[in-house]
Amino acid sequence: MKPILEVRHITKQFKIGAQQERYLSLRDALANPFKKKEGQNHNTFLALDDVSFDVYPGESIGIIGRNGAGKSTLLKILSRITPPTRGKIIGRGRIASLLEVGTGFHPELTGRENIFMNGSILGMRKFEIDKHFDAIVNFSGIEKFLDTPLKRYSSGMQLRLAFAVAAFLEPEILIIDEVLAVGDAEFQKKCLGKMDEVSKSGRTVLFVSHDLSAVSTLTKKSVFLDKGKLIQFGNTPAIIQAYSSNLTQTNIHLQEVVSESPCVTKVEMITSEGGTLQGNEKPLAIHFEIQLPYDQEGMALSIQIFNHLNQPVTYNWYFDEGASLKRRKGVHQLSINFENLKLYQGNYFVRVHLAETITKTKFQQFDCCPFEIVMIDKKAPEWGWQNNVCQYIEKGEWVA
Amino acid sequence: MTEYVIEPQNKFSLGIKELWHYRELFYFFTWRDVKVKYKQAALGILWAILQPLVMMVMFTIIFSKALNVSSDGIPYPVFAISGLLIWNVFSNGLLNSANSMITNANIIKKIYFPRLIIPMSSILTALVDFFFALIIYAAVLIYYQQGISILKLFIYLPLSILITIVTTFGLGTFLSALNVKFRDFQYLLPFMIQFLLFANPVLYSAKAFTNPWINAIMKANPIASAIQLCRSIFTGQVVDWTAVATGSVVAVLLLLAGVYTFRKTESYFADLA
Questions:
Q1: ipTM surpassing 0.90, yes or no?
Q2: Which of A180, A311, A360, B178 reaches 20 to 30 Å from B199, CA-CA?
Q3: Contact between chains at B1 and A92 (C-beta distance less than 8 A)
Q4: Which of B36, B113, B182 sits opposite A29 (nearest CB)?
Q5: What are chain A's domains?
Q6: pTM for the complete prediction?
Q7: Which long-range contacts (CB under 8 A, 24 or more apart) does B135-139 make?
Q8: Touching check for A78 and chain B: CB below 8 Å?
């Protein structure tokens, strides 16, 4: 089988300082008609540097990398918005890009009119739009407002309509950039389902996102870009691991000492994947540094892990009673190790409580260490890892 | 499955095949522009009729009544409207298309389709106004009881409009490409159009000039030729076919130059706009 996309040595060069050059004024051009083009001497910058990879029909490819890694430039070249400086891409199927959904929407036109306008700009023929019209309206859930000008829509409605049109494009290659960053949870679920359906129907999806959970849910293989270079191309779990180990940031929280009472001065989280990334059922450690300005008995430290909806999910505590929590004045270390954290994919943070149990005084309470759980190295269910399915996965034995 | 190659652009082609593939977009862009243009106006599409009517009345008062300008032996309103028909297609089309790439920059930066569709359909928008202006045209003809040959009407009028469109399209694509790079054209254009209104025999007869140089320029000027052709439907004067021919040749040359410039620069529009 021939690849549906052959990306060969793609290089894109930008001039540094092009900002000033952009709106060339005519006066400058007229004043210096013979001035040599400085192109070659200019400081140039490679947004993409010799990137090559193949994509086969039906594959879903994630593209990950930090800001400025060249992801958007690559997508722009793939969707033919801007040409490469060198290299070429051979494509064997219709590409539709969702670089930004709702392109061509006009606030003065009604929902109905915008469906046709947007659809045709995205490359749909009129008969195709006619064919899918009811389904598009249904999917977007805006039936009642079909003949209302778009400017009266809420931004959520606009987005739903835009995605609905794009979802029925039926291209062989679908490019998606960060669309999941917006919209409510229910709509996100709808979108994920639709994208999954697209990739299951044998079409190819190129998916760019900062949401590593979504990337690992939707794609089997990924491209890892850094500073315009292709660092690695391979199976998504391995790429995510490479990407997160490439992140140098660590999750350390330093708490300012505000009073003369006991306090936690430092919280350091050591995740399984490095940085703020934690694998499901992988070890997690949190270190605490506690400062006691005087001797104090009956100290208690407890932590809760909260999910993105601000709901507490786990609770762990450590009491002085029986096991001494370093009662003497000074700086003390305390750690908690989770051997295999069962929390499901999503975003979480830690709430720390420091108290004393004798007079029941609470010294401190603060939130810190936001982290993200990703489902890597795990066999996904048939429908993939969808968001907000559960809080954690408990092992169970099926008996039939 | 269609195979295509994305690579640095250096070849020149018109891309007719691709334009044909995206033909429906012409309709949708034109339709959108017409809709949006009149949507918030209380009088709506009536403006397309009112504008040429007001212009015609105004020019009749100033040029015919006050200045006594010769109108080749036909009532001045008939003279004026046949010039204005052509002129409005040209001036509105040029203004629309020259700014079209900038007003549609957000689309250009997001989605690929043959860019030529944008300036082309903005001229089609001006053509929609033309069809409404035809109502005034018909009304004036009936009011002044102009005996005309139907044959002439159905040959000369479309031919003159065709020359106008080709010219507008050439200049429009040229200016729209330049406009992306040099925003100066945005400011220059209104002056240019004002100047051209007086430089073209819209309000006066081309016969007013006796200078051979100016006459030569008028012959090469496709808009002047188109107006002259459109007017000869009523004036009964013999059509200066050499003027029509040279005007047409110039129009086609303008078209080629405009499209060439546009195609040379279009792939970088997204980086510049």
A1: no
A2: B178
A3: yes
A4: B182
A5: 255-374 (2.70.50.60)
A6: 0.70
A7: B135/B49, B136/B49, B136/B52, B136/B53, B136/B56, B136/B81, B137/B81, B137/B82, B137/B85
A8: yes
